[in-house]
């Protein structure tokens, strides 16, 4: 999403090598605790710039790079960083070899991720760092994704589910910095997109139309309303077929799905005036 809140953005930021320096919050160098300084960009708290392996320019992070360049930066190929305090260019490491400032409370030597300590951990099967704490998550081999521990043995696995884009914003989920929400059907969307969908009155998985949470009370209320509004005599006893789509039918051929139907009494809910086949 392009509309990130960006309090410190400047129109000319980060287009020329080294210029991103102006975007770095310079630390109070007299500060007693150097590692606690709040430098970085809108995405990460860090005191160094990464040398983009693609174009050789220095950016605070790959997202800042991707925002202004026409190509994407491969975080795994970063080898050099530049200290935001003393400008020394050096191998990617956690601490400046010259002024000894910590580039980040957290450092991953695989992703070259520097940030404030958010209890991050690097998940090898995911291939990236995730925000922990690690003991609150497990990597589900089938979904091929780190999920909250309370979902262990308690969710519907969809193979490689996070490699599909979010059905709401159509953006990447696997490497997203926004957490994922697992629907009862096993499909994933960003937590923020789920919250938005919920707020807008959506209650179904956008991919398979399965309920996004337990709708028991809602259905009971509907059944009650229906029983209190009998159909006119000419419609009584009439039934209709409705598709019964299950999440696993999502990628099934239409010919197969067509046959999965339920026969239910026709009912027009007069209060709202639409056909409610339940
Ligand atoms: Zn580049
Ligand atoms: Zn950034
Ligand atoms: Zn330094
Ligand atoms: Zn990592
Ligand atoms: Zn993982
Ligand atoms: Zn799973
Ligand atoms: Zn989304
Ligand atoms: Zn679904």
From TrEMBL:
This is Ring finger and CHY zinc finger domain containing 1. It comes from Paramormyrops kingsleyae. Residues 103-165 form the CTCHY-type domain. Residues 34-101 form the CHY-type domain. Keywords: Metal-binding, Zinc, Zinc-finger. PROSITE patterns: ZF_CHY (PS51266), ZF_CTCHY (PS51270), ZF_RING_2 (PS50089). The keyword Zinc applies. SUPFAM superfamilies: CHY zinc finger-like (SSF161219), RING/U-box (SSF57850), Zinc hairpin stack (SSF161245). CDD domains: RING-H2_Pirh2-like. Pfam families: zf-CHY, zf-RING_2. GO terms for cellular component: nucleus. One of its GO terms (molecular function) is ubiquitin protein ligase activity. Residues 166-208 form the RING-type domain. GO terms for biological process: protein ubiquitination; ubiquitin-dependent protein catabolic process.
């Amino acid at each position: 999403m392009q509309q990130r809140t960006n309090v410190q953005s400047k129109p000319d930021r980060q287009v020329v090598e080294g210029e991103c320096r102006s975007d770095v919050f310079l630390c109070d160098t007299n500060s007693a605790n150097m590692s606690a300084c709040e430098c970085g960009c809108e995405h990460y708290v860090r005191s160094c710039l990464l040398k983009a392996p693609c174009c050789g320019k220095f950016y605070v992070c790959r997202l800042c790079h991707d925002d202004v360049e026409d190509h994407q930066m491969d975080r795994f190929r970063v080898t050099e960083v530049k200290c935001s305090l003393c400008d020394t260019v050096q191998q990617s490491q956690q601490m400046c070899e010259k002024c000894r400032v910590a580039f980040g409370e957290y450092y991953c030597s695989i992703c070259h991720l520097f940030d404030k300590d958010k209890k991050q951990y690097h998940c090898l099967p995911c291939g990236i760092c995730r925000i922990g704490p690690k003991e609150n998550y497990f990597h589900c081999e089938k979904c091929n994704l780190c999920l909250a521990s309370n979902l262990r043995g308690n969710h519907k696995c969809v193979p490689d589910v996070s490699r599909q884009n979010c059905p709401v914003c159509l953006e990447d989920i696997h490497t997203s910095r926004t957490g994922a929400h697992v629907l009862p059907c096993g499909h994933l969307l960003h937590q923020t997109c789920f919250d938005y969908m919920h707020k807008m009155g959506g209650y179904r998985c956008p991919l398979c139309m399965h309920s996004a949470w337990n709708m028991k009370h809602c259905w009971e209320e509907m059944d009650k309303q229906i029983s209190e509004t009998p159909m006119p005599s000419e419609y009584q006893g009439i039934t209709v077929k409705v598709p019964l789509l299950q999440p696993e039918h999502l990628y099934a051929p239409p010919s197969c799905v067509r046959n999965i139907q339920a026969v239910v009494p026709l009912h027009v809910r007069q209060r709202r005036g639409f056909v409610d086949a339940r």
